[in-house]
Amino acid sequence: xxxxxxxxxxxxxxxxxxxxxxxxxxxxxxxxxxxxxxxxxxxxxxxxxxxxxxxxxxxxxxxxxxxxxxxxxxxxxxxxxxxxxxxxxxxxxxxxxxxxxxxxxxxxxxxxxxxxxxxxxxxxxxxxxxxxxxxxxxxxxxxxxxxxxxxxxxxxxxxxxxxxxxxxxxxxxxxxxxxxxxxxxxxxxxxxxxxxxxxxxxxxxxxxxxxxxxxxxxxxxxxxxxxxxxxxxxxxxxxxxxxxxxxxxxxxxxxxxxxxxxx
Length: 263
Hints:
The protein has 263 residues and is an alpha+beta fold. The chain has 2 domains: 12-196, PAS domain (Beta-Lactamase, 2-Layer Sandwich); 199-259, Orthogonal Bundle (Arc Repressor Mutant, subunit A). The chain has helices at 12-20, 31-37, 39-47, 69-73, 77-88, 94-112, 117-120, 205-215, 220-227, 231-244, 250-259; strands at residues 50-56, 61-65, 123-132, 138-150, 156-165, 175-183, 187-196. A 7-stranded antiparallel sheet has the order 2-1-5-4-3-6-7.
């Protein structure tokens, strides 16, 4: 991957404001052009319980939404096309939304801005999160997408993707963001895979350091020596970790940490 300039990258909300304040909008080709060019997405939607979308980041509107969205989210395609992201983003689980906006989206922009546009179009992105259906029930979604159009600086403007309900296959709330690159000779290879700590746990930086050493099999005395703090302080952190994760003992704490990506 090309060297990334050391500049502060925007969160999702900051990026949205940036696009809104640019003043000029890029004109896209007709929607049918993209649907025809990437007809494999629609073919997938016709045979699997998933929904296909075309999202304009400039306006936060969906230019296309397949009919299966109602089976999965409870909203009709007409409702989502009319409401756009103003309707859907507030449906994200608040913990996941904060992680996606403040952490995942920055990683996403780091990557998109580091590549030439043509190379970027051979990249595939995927992430999972919780979203509330129209009936108020949270489900786990896997979202996989590609970038179709960017501005002159490589900022993603138009995305096309597919969302799949993976609730039956998820036993934790860990968010995983992955990027793969397609090559005609080598096929698809993963170039980045990040998991994010559940923000709702409220675990501090120091507590997370203690937890990592516990996961490696260290006892309180060994953790204290490694972190150059007293064993009494380590034990205090352990008690806080047990309380914050609702764990009865260290075994349950370690299981919680593994299932929720606190490593």
